[in-house]
Write a structure and sequence with these properties.
The structure holds two protein chains of two kinds. Chain A is α+β, with helices and mostly antiparallel strands. Chain A is about 30% helix and about 30% strand. Chain B contains six helices and no strands.
Chain lengths: ~270, ~170
């Protein structure tokens, strides 16, 4: 007994390391945003508050570029709006169309934490269940898609970024109906891969990629990026493209969470 | 009092790491400021306590980075290795108490000690991170860039801090 005790005290540092290393490895292997236990919710709340405070300062950086982007996007939407109104006016009573309940609601949120250098990236938003945000909702900014809500607390939510190989988003080329799957390959934060596109789809480099709307996450037509290169696919039955993402993940500031008011129950 | 000041230093290190340095990547690597704690922790602190503090600091960084367990594992291992590494370059009799500063152990021993700590930490950190995703060249670049940037930064920091009387 005494020998055993002496053995432990003499090798104290080693056992301290062993216990803590095993503990951290267990944490590491269990880390999955879907199953994080409740007591880390409170810890994330603390870090959320700290990030929100630091974000109050850093959100002023780069306002000029964001402003330009927004004005650009506003112009596009204005043109589209005018065109649609014109078409509608020819068709039917415009007011009744505009007053029908909207299928999607956009909740504006601020990004308080964002990473682009990890192997799996996440964002934290300053809106949570109290603002109507739920797990599985899509997140986009004015340029394009950003990710999907993975976990929520009352005032914060964790978003799986598009820059995370675990997130696959159903996308298609703007000019065709054929769907593919958008996934990040873990290299540059400016690019992702669009795979599983059928071979017979006509395409040109520079074609725009949009979401398909085949899930409850994103409506059809949210911009994703543009094709910049055809890649060698794993098998020759499908096409694979390198897609230049519209979203600038290094300077995301404000995003909107897309709430589906009428989700498909299946 | 000095315990309180040390604690404040550690908090500042962690805050700067998660709020500033983690957002300034170059070739995938970042400056790992919190390794300054592994350099400067007084040698007379008992080793289990050093290892435990490594674990706790790593865990706090993990909570901010959404990488639960990753930094904790790497920094625990680094803190476990730090005294054996230090004694590779400085005799145990020469440094019985206090912090290993550049002035006390000399530039030769200091940069070797710093580099060895950096190599151990970066290898453990990025290899552990990579076992979910591998792309060897990127990984190597990331490790090298982290080591070089942190090395330069911490040497400069140590030179600046040297002028202050403690």
């Amino acid at each position: 007994m005494q020998n055993l005790f002496r053995f432990f005290t003499r090798n104290g540092p080693f056992f301290a390391w062993l216990v803590l290393a095993v503990l951290s490895l267990v944490l590491l292997l269990q880390r999955n945003p879907y199953q994080r236990s409740v007591w880390f919710g409170s810890a994330n709340r603390v870090s959320g508050e700290v990030y929100a405070a630091s974000n109050m300062v850093s959100s002023y950086f780069g306002l000029r570029t964001i402003n330009e982007d927004l004005l650009h996007r506003l112009g596009q939407l204005e043109e589209e709006n005018l065109l649609l109104r014109q078409h509608l006016r020819n068709q039917q009573d415009i007011d009744s169309v505009l007053l029908t309940p909207k299928p999607y609601r956009y909740v504006v949120a601020h990004v308080v934490q964002n990473s682009i250098t990890q192997a799996e990236n996440f964002l934290t938003l300053d809106k949570g269940t109290a603002d109507g945000i739920g797990v599985g909702m899509g997140v986009a900014d004015h340029n394009g898609i950003v990710g999907q809500v993975a976990k929520t607390s009352e005032h914060f939510s964790l978003v799986i970024s598009v820059l995370n190989p675990k997130l696959r988003i159903s996308s298609c080329l703007k000019n065709s109906e054929s769907i593919g799957s958008l996934v990040w390959d873990g290299n540059s934060p400016a690019y992702a891969l669009l795979s599983d596109v059928p071979r017979n789809v006509p395409f040109e480099l520079g074609d725009t990629v949009i979401t398909t709307g085949y899930s409850n996450t994103f409506p059809r037509g949210v911009p994703v990026g543009r094709i910049c290169e055809e890649m060698q696919a794993e098998d020759n039955n499908f096409l694979c493209f390198r897609v230049e993402l519209f979203t600038h993940f290094d300077r995301i500031n404000n995003v909107h969470v897309i709430t589906n008011t009428n989700p498909c129950p299946f | 009092m000095s315990v309180l000041i040390t604690f404040l230093w550690i908090v500042i290190c962690i805050a700067l790491q998660v709020l500033v340095f983690n957002h300034l990547p170059l070739a995938g690597g970042v400056i790992l400021l919190y390794l300054y704690v592994a350099i400067k922790m007084p040698v007379e602190v008992s080793r289990p306590l050093q290892i435990l503090s490594g674990f706790l600091i790593g865990l706090v960084i993990d909570i901010f980075c959404n990488t639960l367990g990753l930094h904790a594992f790497a920094f625990t291992t680094t803190m476990w290795m730090r005294l054996p590494l230090l004694h590779m370059f400085v005799l145990a009799e020469d440094i019985k108490t206090g912090e290993p500063t550049l002035q006390r152990i000399g530039f030769q021993s200091f940069w070797r000690f710093l580099l060895s700590i950096l190599i151990v930490h970066c290898l453990v950190l990025y290899l552990t991170e990579a076992f979910t995703l591998f792309c060897f060249l990127n990984l190597l670049l990331k490790i090298l860039s982290s080591i070089v940037m942190t090395f330069v930064f911490l040497i400069v920091l140590e030179l600046v801090m040297r002028r202050k009387p403690v």
